Amino acid sequence: MEARAAVDAAAAALTEWSGTPARVRSEVLRRAFELMVADTENLAGLIAWENGKSLADARAEVTYAAEFFRWFAEEAVRTDGAYGAAPAGGARTIVTHRPVGVAALITPWNFPAAMATRKIGPALAAGCTVVLKPARETPLTALAVVRLLREAGVPDGVVNLVPTTSSAVVVTTWLEDPRVRKISFTGSTPVGRTLLKQAADRVVNASMELGGNAPFVVTEDADVSAAIAGAMIAKFRNGGQACTAANRFYVHADVVEEFVARFGAAVEALRVRPSFAVDCEVGPLVSAKAVDDVRRLVAEAVSAGARVAHQATVPDTGHFHAPMVLTDVTHDAAILREEVFGPVAPVVVWRDEAELLAWVNDTPFGLAAYVYAGDLQRGLRLGEAIEAGMVGVNRGVVSDPSAPFGGVKESGLGREGARVGLREFQETQYLSVDWS
Prior knowledge:
The chain is of the alpha/beta class and 436 residues long. It has 14 helices and 18 strands.
């Protein structure tokens, strides 16, 4: 079976790769970065074909994805540890970090290149070998990334890709194999729970980047123009199909009329087109089911009293859903409790800050959040009070390879990116040396 053969190859390559000097691993990742940047147009076209996002969004994803190879090329050589004296005397302590072993990586369809490089980069930098299962919707992008890694000099057996439509069978095979010591998963919270239960049977090291329900807060003293510009990115990048996408808009009563009017006009002006159209800003959703799921949430919201205040025009054929703004949404509306994986922006009016924070934090999720405030201190105070792993303050983007990406509550465990992203693929070991 291919799943077991992939682990065989990864296990066979582990000793040599983990023993490869960090500088050599670093240079391989640096070459992968350069090759990926040089192949931007081909990769972007492939992403657009598989995923449906606009070609502009796809190019931006390739740039973002490549940065993980560059960042972890730099982190690979930062092999810090610690040396100290035992307080009681008689011993010296040496702390080191070693690769966790064979790592199983499970990636989603919405960012098929970036989610792969965000996991492969730190794993290879740490000295791990990997088995990778891409989403069934987007296997070709993952294959292209692995091809570039091979061209960059990654040895046989270090990165092993298993495309499949039988995801549960493949991942279960990996989690039951004693040679697999790490799982890194990006996807839905329900699937994450299942994988965590399976990982618990063998106490497998687990990193989980799961669902989100990001609030987007606009205070009465916010720069409305900046808030609208940030909202357009936070909500409509990749057609709203992102775990960090703004899902619930909380706008202060003093500025809600202006915000909705101007935000709505910007939404109506969005050019929704096939992905390769020259002027495409928002492409189709990934599948007919994705469209149906968003339509259901909108229909339920409207039946509960919400109103479609603004929407863009969409083509007659294809998996399109109109980008839209919903108003007259109550703070307890059902659409605010679910992750809307599509281009829909429900707006809630708020007046009292304590009440706002209660509404914002009334969710089992805590991945990302956004706050627009005129007074920076207030923006930071609100950001710290929101139960989320990442908060954009006067900024509509939170993802960056140099920053720790991840959530709290049911949005996941662990972090990707930054130095901690490397640590997710390492075990800490200390040596106690007699000093008597």
